[in-house]
Amino acid sequence: MLVYPSGLDLSSPHLRFLTARLRERRRAIGSRWRRLSAGRQALLTLAHLRNGHPYAQLAAGFGIGTTTAYRYITEAVDVLAALAPSLAEVVQSASTKAFVLLDGTLLPTDRIAADRPFYSGKHKKHGMNVQVLADPAGRLLWASPALPGAIHDVRAAREHGIIDTLADAGIKRWADKGYRGAGGTVRTPCWGRWETLSTGQQAVNRSHAKIRALVEPAIATLKTWRLLRKLRCSTTRITHLVQAVLTLHLTGSN
User: Fold this and answer.
1) Is 230 contained in some domain?
2) Which of the residues in the chain have pLDDT under 50?
3) In a shared domain, residues 116 and 157
4) Are residues 71 and 132 located together in one domain of the fold?
5) Dihedrals φ, ψ of 185, to 5°?
6) Which of 20, 80, 146, 190 could form a disulfide with 201 if both were Cys (CB 3.0 to 4.6 A apart)?
């Protein structure tokens, strides 16, 4: 396999943050010697998450075995995932905002056609449903654990407790038609075909669409981590990957 130098479009605070967390982890478990330093392990993990490179390619580039690369990356991802903010913590910080934006996105996977629970009829592909909360400026605040793609957005929001938690905090949420009937403080557009809506309802829907569209940058931010654009791992690991990416994003934006 040929090896070549490559760049990573991340800032040094990402590397310093993860390196420090890995050093703490090594001290906690009493790890003495490893093939890679904490800094190199952090760089390996960031390259995997940001660029989506497979373990074999990364292993060749870092001069380690594929199994070792997998083990190092899994350890670092678990460390990051444990630091991701909970929904309650996000709601507390969002209580000062006028409203939040709620939307769902599908993270495509390489599931086969027989895996019906992971097939999204809306997106016509297999994947995992992740709910996203953003502030009024479109900045990513929180991403939920991943559920099978066949689950509709409103059901996913309920299962994660998003509807009740934000309602209890009195925080208004703007969402699309996929959340119709959610209740609480969720604001959705007027239901019906455009031509059957009154002039006032059409105006409301246009205004609603402009506000709700602000969530798109938050979803795009999540998917700048290229690994999430086409997941080839076990579905049981996807929640950890999403939480790890969320931790790194919030670290870099602070």
Assistant:
1) no
2) none
3) yes
4) no
5) -105, 25
6) 190
pLDDT for 201 equals 84
Distance CA 116, CA 111 (A): 9
Q: DSSP assignment of the chain, as one string?
A: -----------HHHHHHHHHHHHHHHHHHT----SS-HHHHHHHHHHHHHH---HHHHHHHHTS-HHHHHHHHHHHHHHHHTTSPPHHHHHHHHTTSS-EEEEEEEEEB---TT-GGGEETTTTEEEEEEEEEE-TT--EEEEPPPEETTS-HHHHHHHTTHHHHHHHTT--EE--GGGTT--TTEE-PPPS-GGGS-HHHHHHHHHHHHHHGGGHHHHHHHTTSGGGGSB-S-GGGHHHHHHHHHHHHHHHH-
The answer to whether position 228 is within a domain reads no
Q: What pLDDT is stored for residue 65 in this prediction?
A: 96
Q: What's the number of domains the chain is made of?
A: 2
